[in-house]
Design a protein that fits this description.
287 residues, alpha/beta, TIM Barrel, eight-stranded parallel beta barrel, two-stranded antiparallel sheet, 9 helices
C-alpha cells in the first residue's frame, strides 16, 4: 500500500502547480519564508512548514549558541515562524527544524559560531513547548556532514569532512540520542535520506556504509516525518546534498522499502516535473 505522500513546494526550483497536486493527491511542505506568498490553492494543501535556519542579516541561526544573545534571537525567530504558521496555515500540523550548529565558523554569524549540547537540548524542549502551544508537532531533522576541498569550498571532488561546519545530530546515533535526551512528547524525528547519505560517506567500506545508513532507521517509532530523496550512496558525488527522485541514485531498494513501510505520511523533497513525478510514483508503488 502506498503511503500518503506530500511534495516540496519551494520557489523557484521546486514548484508543482495546484493541478499537479490535485491530480496526484499530494500535500506540500513549504519554507517558512514563503508562508505569506502562497497562492490560496497551494496554501490549502500545506501539511508541514520548514523552520528558518538562516537569515540575510544574521547568517546561520544557532539556538544552541553559547552566546546567549544570539541564542535568544535565534529562538525568537523560530518561535515567531511557528506562530505565523499556526495563524496562516491552520492545516499545517508539522514544523521541521534542523539540529543546531555545534561549530559553524566562516560565515557571518560571529555570535553563533559555537554551540553547546546542553543548551541544544534545552532549546529543543522550549521549541517543542512553543510548537505544542500553537497546535503543531516539532520534527527534528538530521542535518548533513559538510565536505570541503583545500580551498574551503563545498565540494565532492578532492574533499574531506569540514571541521569548521559541524551540526549536532548528523550521525545516526547522535540524532537518536537527541530525541531521547529531549524526551518531549511533542518532538519526533524527521529523516532526510539525502543528508544521511552525505554523512555516511565518511565510512569507507561500502557494506559498512550501508549498515551505518540503516542506523537511521533503527528506531522507526521515533520517526514522524521523512524528507525522501534518492541519492548517490557510493559515488563521491554523493558527498553533496542532492534532491534526486526516489529510485534514482544508488540507495539500495531495501532502504526505500523500509522508508515506505514506516506507516507515516512521506514527503518527496524535490520536484523535477510531472513526467518524472509519475515515474517516481510508479517506483514507489512497486516497492
Amino acid at each position: 500500500m502506498t503511503p500518503k505522500l506530500g511534495i516540496i513546494y519551494m520557489k523557484p526550483k521546486h514548484e508543482p502547480g495546484a493541478e499537479v497536486l490535485r491530480r496526484h493527491d499530494l500535500t506540500v511542505e513549504v519554507a517558512s519564508r514563503q508562508m505569506t506568498e502562497l497562492p490560496p490553492d497551494i496554501a490549502e494543501r500545506v501539511a508541514s512548514v520548514h523552520m528558518p535556519y538562516s537569515t540575510p542579516e544574521l547568517g546561520r541561526l544557532n539556538y544552541a549558541a553559547v552566546d546567549s544573545e544570539f541564542r535568544q534571537i535565534s529562538l525568537e525567530i523560530i518561535e515567531n515562524a511557528m506562530r505565523q504558521a499556526a495563524e496562516l496555515l491552520p492545516d499545517a500540523g508539522l514544523v521541521v527544524i534542523h539540529g543546531s550548529p555545534q561549530r559553524f565558523v566562516g560565515e557571518s554569524q560571529a555570535g553563533g559560531e559555537i554551540g553547546d549540547y546542553g543548551l541544544y537540548i534545552q532549546s529543543l524542549r522550549r521549541l517543542a513547548d512553543t510548537a505544542a502551544e500553537n497546535g503543531l508537532r516539532l520534527m527534528l531533522e538530521n542535518n548533513r556532514r559538510y565536505w570541503t576541498n583545500a580551498a574551503g569550498e563545498m565540494a565532492w571532488e578532492d574533499s574531506a569532512p569540514a571541521e569548521n561546519f559541524v551540526y549536532f545530530a548528523i550521525e545516526p546515533d547522535d540524532w537518536l540520542q537527541s530525541y531521547h535526551d529531549v524526551g518531549h512528547e511533542n518532538l519526533k524525528l524527521c529523516l532526510d535520506t539525502a543528508h544521511a547519505c552525505c554523512t555516511v560517506h565518511a565510512v569507507a567500506d561500502p557494506d559498512e556504509r550501508v549498515e551505518q545508513f540503516m542506523r537511521f532507521l533503527s528506531a522507526p517509532e521515533a520517526i514522524g516525518h521523512v524528507h525522501w530523496n534518492g541519492h548517490e550512496l557510493f559515488e563521491p558525488e554523493g558527498r553533496l546534498d542532492k534532491h534526486l527522485n526516489v529510485g534514482k541514485g544508488t540507495i539500495p531498494i531495501e532502504v526505500h522499502r523500509k522508508v515506505k513501510n514506516l506507516g507515516i505520511p512521506l514527503l518527496l523533497e524535490h520536484f523535477h516535473g510531472e513526467e518524472a513525478l509519475v515515474e517516481e510514483l510508479a517506483y514507489i508503488e512497486m516497492l
